[in-house]
Amino acid sequence: MTENIAQNLAEMEVDDDLLVDDDNEVLVEDEFDGELAPADDDDDDDVSDEEDEIRDLSALKLTAHTDSVYAVALGQSLDGRLLALTGGGDDLGRLTHVGNSCIELTGHGDSVSSVAFSHDGALCATGGYDGVVQIWETTGSLTKRIEGPGDVEWLRFHPRGDVILAGSGDGTVWLWQARTGECLRVFVGHEGAVSCGEFTSDGNGIVTGSADATVRSWAPKKGTCKHTFANLPGAIIQLAVKSITEPDIIAAALDAPKALLFHLKSKQIITNLDLPIAQDDTRIATFVALAPAISWAVVGDDAGALTLFDYSHGDPATIRHVWTFQDSPIVQAIWHPSQPRLTVATADGFIRHLDARVGGDPLYELSGHTDLLLALDVHWGPHDYAQSEVHTVLSAGDDRIPRIFRARFDQSTQHWVVLSSL
């Protein structure tokens, strides 16, 4: 997907205006309290002059990688501190205890393609195109170095335990005990690269998607394939799982102008999420995300549209709204865990927080990246001293500098405030 994004943005111009309506005015505070480099530091000589044209609203710029950053994750340490984990084309991971220190995670012989935190914040993992997965204490000490698969495409920790799952370009999926490195299962059956995978939200199942145009459901304890959704109309780009209240519902974005919604227990395709395009339109889906509390899904595409579907009435799903973002591919969309709101990243470097109930302009918009944006994560909360909701966003890409943004809802003004400090 990174290659597709690069092709689509070869001639793109980045707009530096903050696009919000008067009712959702975004205010920016000026203070900086962090101990790492503040966002307005301008001592990076190798950064393009384009940076001067983009309003940098980040609260913190993390220690730069020397190549593109492909993967990011936010976590929380055992003592409640915010953690930021990044991996890039310089063969390094970096673990930042925000406001304190940055630890370089070495040992990979190729690009670090995926990073993840365990459910309790005690462990983190880096996976690389060298076929190596490394497990780290979040203090920075290496716990286990694991080898086995071909290049690692993605990593996922179990939602409740120290078990880690990885998908490989060689068509295999591996399951390990993270602390010991014991291989628990190797899942074999895909005939192409395993591009994506997830634990079901209850932790009792595994689903994987592949370039072979199949989605497979696995039994972790037995290591067997429970069902294969085969002959789908495109390679699988990305998977999404529903909240723990509906663990059997999953969605897949395809290398086609659509996503599909599946029910694992009944082994049925519930509905098609078809993008509203003209007959000669060649756009494809890049991302799908399922709202946790309601029967809504968003599908992003490589032409900069994000389509909101309501699938509560079965097939076909109803289109509620379509947002368009300057022809810039949708990189990622992350729903709020309890509200009908979501944070969306586009490849041109902008990040927007949307209210799915009303559509329209973003509640707030973040900028600062000077090249393709490739990765996003969001940490919701905790609420601040005024009981206002606080969002923390970590993003990174081809400009090599991971950025942390923060925003909170000001109860007194009823506006979102983009914070310039942590």
| Shape call | globular
Average pLDDT level:
88
Tally of strands: 34
Estimate what percentage of residues fall within beta strands: over 45%
User: How many helices in DSSP terms?
Assistant: 1
Low-confidence stretches: 1-26, 29-44
Oligomer: single chain
**Rg measurement, Å:** 20 Å
| Measured distance between first and last alpha carbons | 32 Å
Helix content: under 10%
Helix- and strand-based class?
Answer: mainly beta
- Tell me the major beta sheet: 6 strands, mixed
General description of the model:
This protein is mainly beta. The protein has a domain of 147 residues. The protein is built from one helix and 34 strands. The radius of gyration is 20 Å and the shape is globular.
List keywords for this structure.
four-stranded antiparallel sheet, globular, six-stranded mixed sheet, disordered N terminus, mainly beta, single chain, 422 residues
